[in-house]
């Protein structure tokens, strides 16, 4: 008999068992283990181990990775697995040993080689993701001391990094592999450093960013020993949840009968994300160690796998079976293994159990999984193959992504023939609700006794097109793409089977084909299929070139040397302190935000009575509690701290609760309040709504040069085009965080904030509190990434936290959850461009362009202006006019993001340049080169181009990439392959450096010299991983003539350097570097009398710019940064997937202050641009609710997305006289070079379209997702699925297009 609610409550009041486990070799006994607490929360708050970071709370980013070791009785051995601490329930760790990043080494004692190598290989920038990456590698080495590069890449599938671009991480850890790091001059074909053709030409060029010989060897004796004592039913009772770990199947069944609604948890990969749905499971059963559920045995028909067997163990079992059994029996096993490669990350596979969404398995399990409440799944059976089986999965990103469509296909033939006996095809993602695969069984009349030939193929495709119909409003959207995929995947299966039949039966099978063209296509398809049956993730390689510092210079002068990031070792050991790592204060409160659920409405009332009764709630704070002004805003005070009576978008902050947090208080408090609305039905959710209703903010910006009207009269050809560039989330690994501490006197408030704009935070907090700015101190130690997202929108959180601290007179802390951060803060502005271009057809010279740009709101005027400043990119257009409009919508305000509007403006320029090339029938690189600027030319805003180096970058990039040879190879490949095509593109960039807002081009620095000779340096910039502090130490070291070891930076603080500009716009090294230089020069002048008295002594002994839009005059930028990139890609015309084969980048950074950091910025910026232009896509509901909030739905580039071959060269002999020590800004300019990948994709699509008889310009919006690529490769299969009228979910997708 099941228990009632009252009886369950009584059970919850009983005493639970002691939880015993080890952390870093120390025994922990928790007498009151809370089932709702995760391991991550326990480590950080109870044990003070803050090296393990919170990045997403859904197991998608890997920042919380650590190692869990346990004795597995069914395997009779100790296993070491990387695990996501944010998902692991504390109660699941009984008799386990946990190892965190602090437990394997430290700066103070001894570094572990895993920690040392990522730091010295320059694989850490902001450092927030570094502990998780370190622990993924450490766990791999504990299980496999000599891994292959494939093992390392697989281990990192569950880890994300937003800064580095991944290449230095992989190169640093390549040294652990069997082959080591360098090929030793053996001439590896994939990017050998000695065969790249660039070294000998430049004797002062080097590419040695670190010395591998200095690395410590891997020492197994340094590892923590598994506690011998960790070699019955357990109950853990929490406030709201009872956790029971049964020890036998009988006991589990009895418990399931007693608690029929209990949730079974093994890896917690589903329940761990329940906070997104506000779900509560009062009783949890954990059957991980029940013998019957861990069974693995071979049967007559296949392999039986217990329901608690993890995916990692399942993979090991299937790999062993594939090696042992005949090939014809193991095709299902191989298909499952191929799906496992791309299912989640390694951390999830280590704990997730085997009844997951895999093709074929799920269709087999359909009846078994339709369980009653009192039943459990005991095991599954994976069958042997009876020949000819394939499985497919298509997702936006190859690694760790949710499938769009999956399929399992199996066909049987009559003996020794190609006559079909039976066929079974299952599809996932084609049902109204994508929980289970939709199984399609073809009628016997269609296949019975039919030969496997072209006629059968055509009928099958027609049948699929009819049967696989989806409503235009089907959940998930992408209806046309999904329907086309069902046919494309079947076509792949058809060709695969035909190939196998040819091998089994001989070539006489081809006599059934009547179409000679089909045979040709068949042969070209298998020219690659026979080389690689499965998708191969090639090991990436890289080349880095920079100008070496001439020998003989002062050894203390480190400017120009690739020194390691100053905090890299602390990043790798977890000792680097971020905002939420600050120890909790006594009586500290946590903050829970109350936000709008409507996009545009009036607030009628907020009933907080139920919420205030929740234990731990201290105060409810709203607009009426603000002591100062409720108006706020990064530039103009056009927003409110809390909503007064009206909201303008979903997740607008209405109010907040201050809580003394327990396990569940903050998580559930905001679901207790009751809101009553007067809804306003006029909602503009997307750009097209604003454009259709002419809903724009003022002012409208315009820029013009030349006589556009006359230009259109003189040229002989005109083309029109449109392009939409989607938005992008910054996805810094550390979400926005603030700790506010009231000091008790005169309204003083101290803030610890993760922000790029310390002074702006100080000013807005002071305004809200009604106190002078000198009463507020804002401190920034470091950030776990920013990219512009913490320049303006971080002040929203800081202000509300400060108000709560002021009201309660207690310290208040708030770190936003990932979904909250994405909903509140906005991202890169979506951008729509419409252009008209006049050009001379014969010479492909562009004479006039008109562009109209529409941009979403948020910091928008400056974003729009910079887009107009870059609407020409690198091309000299005699007559050009651009007009920009700011759309008024009911979506959250957007924020600055690396590039600040420049990439969007340049992307539109490259779109019309591509269209002109297609119209002229000329190679795109020739058209681009023909129209490029030259030294001394003037921009549309009348600024002369001095020290113009883009032509030098172009020529070096052509040489570095072997462009001409590469192009010939691409053309040959495309002639030989029908369903895969390669594309090649070379793209330049010209990026203006400086703030366009005059008053922001300032900086300050404070330098203290102490009596022992040490130097304390403070400046106005903030450290977010870009290495700014490191560069500033280098500047001070060179100026003062002392070693870097004598100089230290503690933090950025408004009480040491006031009135600072945000760390943004790529100018921080320029501005703060000069401020540091001036401060050091001032000190040297003061020290000069002491130096004169003792000239032989040592250091210890001596102890502005503007532009006017109205007149189109002035100097908009201090200087320009230039770069060129060549990229080669390969697309799959049937699915839309693409691979990044090669990228060469030449970047002008002047005389680099630190080549290692600058190359890291180039690679990191390029990878962010790769996400912007090919992968990252924001999806909203029609009423403005963001669906893609978190790594589960929003995908940024991963380790597997970096180009297989990546070459980066810093342009030599190009000093910049307008910045500190002849350097140049490098943060933002490289991002746009990823457009070379986009246009390489477009080049490949052009070739594919030509195969179908389609030529000339075509529209391809950004990002170039698999859906857009496949739909653009029009062929006979897409014609079977014409696009229907847009429905509900189509609108979700198509907010990015017109």
What does this protein structure show overall?
Helix 3 crosses helix 6 (167-174), helix 24 (860-869) packs parallel to helix 25 and helix 29 (1028-1040) runs parallel beside helix 30 (1068-1093). By secondary structure, this protein is α+β, with helices and mostly antiparallel strands. The two termini are 59 Å apart. The protein is globular. The strands form eleven sheets. An eight-stranded mixed beta sheet has the order 21-25-19-32-29-30-31-40. Strands 6-18-45-44-43-36 form a six-stranded mixed beta sheet, sandwiched between helices. The chain contains 35 helices and 45 strands.
| Largest β sheet strand count, sense and barrel closure | 8 strands, mixed
**Ends apart, CA distance between termini:** 59 Å
Radius of gyration: 31 Å
Strand order of the largest sheet: 21-25-19-32-29-30-31-40
SS strand fraction: 15-25%
Low-pLDDT residue intervals, each spanning 5 or more residues: 183-203, 356-368, 433-444, 530-534, 1286-1298
So what's the overall shape?
A: globular
Kindly state the number of beta strands: 45
How many DSSP helices? 35
Mean pLDDT: 84
- Roughly what percent helix? 25-40%
Query: What would you call the structural class?
Result: alpha+beta
Outline the fold blueprint.
Layout (H helix, E strand, L loop, with lengths): L4 H8 L6 E5 L2 E5 L8 H8 L18 E8 L4 E8 L12 E3 L13 H8 L9 H14 L5 H7 L11 H8 L30 E2 L27 E4 L4 E4 L3 H10 L4 E2 L18 E3 L10 E3 L3 E5 L4 H14 L6 H11 L4 H4 L11 H4 L14 E5 L5 E6 L10 E9 L6 E9 L9 E3 L3 H4 L6 H14 L11 H27 L10 H14 L11 E7 L20 H6 L15 E7 L5 E7 L1 H4 L4 E5 L9 E2 L6 E2 L5 E2 L5 E7 L5 H5 L4 E6 L7 H6 L3 E10 L2 H7 L2 E9 L11 E6 L6 E5 L4 H12 L6 E5 L13 H15 L3 E4 L2 H8 L5 E10 L4 E11 L4 H10 L9 E9 L14 H19 L3 H7 L19 H11 L2 H14 L3 E14 L11 E5 L5 E5 L8 H13 L6 E2 L3 E2 L14 H26 L12 E3 L4 E3 L3 E14 L5 E10 L7 H20 L30 E6 L24 H17 L14 H7 L3 H4 L8 H7 L4
Parallel strand pairs: 1-5, 8-10, 9-10, 18-45, 19-32, 30-31, 34-35, 38-39, 44-45
Antiparallel strand pairs: 1-2, 3-4, 3-5, 6-18, 7-8, 11-12, 12-13, 14-15, 15-16, 16-17, 19-25, 20-24, 20-26, 21-25, 22-23, 27-35, 28-33, 29-30, 29-32, 31-40, 33-34, 36-43, 37-38, 41-42, 43-44
